[in-house]
Here is the input.
Amino acid sequence: MILISLYFLGIVAESITGAIAAGKHKMDVFGVLMISSVTAIGGGSLRDMILGHYPLGWVKHPIYIITVLVASFLTIIFIPFIKSIYKIFIYLDSLGLVVFSIIGTKVAMDMKLSLIVMVISAVITGVFGGVIRDLFCGKVPLVFQHELYASVAVISSLTYIISTYFFNDESAMIITLISGFVVRLLALKYKLGLPYFKVD
Amino acid sequence: MILISLYFLGIVAESITGAIAAGKHKMDVFGVLMISSVTAIGGGSLRDMILGHYPLGWVKHPIYIITVLVASFLTIIFIPFIKSIYKIFIYLDSLGLVVFSIIGTKVAMDMKLSLIVMVISAVITGVFGGVIRDLFCGKVPLVFQHELYASVAVISSLTYIISTYFFNDESAMIITLISGFVVRLLALKYKLGLPYFKVD
Amino acid sequence: MILISLYFLGIVAESITGAIAAGKHKMDVFGVLMISSVTAIGGGSLRDMILGHYPLGWVKHPIYIITVLVASFLTIIFIPFIKSIYKIFIYLDSLGLVVFSIIGTKVAMDMKLSLIVMVISAVITGVFGGVIRDLFCGKVPLVFQHELYASVAVISSLTYIISTYFFNDESAMIITLISGFVVRLLALKYKLGLPYFKVD
Here is the structure.
């Protein structure tokens, strides 16, 4: 089932980004595992709590959280051998963002919620794991200042919703995954962003 | 229905304060919309999640969130033309505080919860949108250090509870709205506050 | 009933630590009461919201929150007369940590959740009150950098789970309480910690 594969892809990607972010703040192994877990499953958990969608995925299927912990632990072990960590961080984070946006949209769609709630569900699932990660590391959440970050969640969500009218569910997911990932990478490469707003 | 009007008044007021606060941190348009939304509906959402009061208002009635987004967007457009932004911020925030305290009290009252839970519900609804806004902007939440801020939520909640014994529901709301707003403005004008507590 | 006594012990201990932490940031009396309450009941509330375990304890039994408020208020009054506040803070916080870990484990156990969710429930209950306290005070949550802090929650949870196979519930609680408290104090005394992880 492609949705499950996507989900595992997303939580592994985000738990690695969580471990890297935690490592930048000199935390002990346990702290890293916690930040990793929150990054990987925090957005989805918050979405489920907001939508009253119980039980939460990882509470029902502990294999999800075990996967996150293993991925985080392996990151700690192997990261000293890896170069260009920042690039890996960016790619994985972009992947996680698009995957989680698809899943967030689908959860709200299956609950027969309205269009705007589907999109908000995508944004919460896609970006709030990272928001909580940044808060725990004592930083202003970067999502609020980034090039097309949360916007990619919106674009992915709308792409997926529209695609389901024309294609079957699995094709819609793959179309969204590829196009969302490309949009995010283009935004990064060309520093595309929304206009800034500043009050003096 | 006066409650609905009050609710719209509250979320519009708070979404404007959220947009202004976000603008002080140079965020992109999307970041502003997110901070605005969290400020306007964060307190009520947290209250509903704590009380198990599902579905959340804006999930059921997406018009609430659309209102917030429109108010936030209009703020971005029109704020360059406005003087004395700080004063507007303070008035709107005070209005939102009192309105949300009334609504928080009423939700707990309708769930037949105890007196102290009604008051806590008012405080959560009234101040936590602002608390989350401040956390997202990387600041110590000002509510914990402000002149009679959270206290106004308590006073409004008690005023409303007591008023419902003597008046009908709508009159109780109007009495609370006016008296709470006046107390808050007096507290600001005369810098009234609770005694401070300091551990060395 | 030993569980109830433990629970009161835990919330009183943690509300005192919350009041002390708030006092270090010069907050008004109301801010102190709020930080105290969040520290004492925040971890358990978050756990219940994550597990869908409604109604929350203090919503159903307002005596819990009244206890927290009274303990916090008494702390404000009596703390000027007390020496070595830091030591008291550490002992109380350690006590609260172990007590809440036991309770978190038991809640998940009674809901027949899996082993790993029991342990996570212990960690959430034990440490997240303090995490939210630190966020509200504008600090990087210390739990992520501390000597065997969250690890004590894991150790206590596992000790309790294993003990219930060999002893009755109350004995298991007492065994866990004593051994967890001793492990935490030894970790503090000898600065035991997990290895650190750092990404350059």
Notes: The first strand of chain A starts at residue 27 and ends at 28.
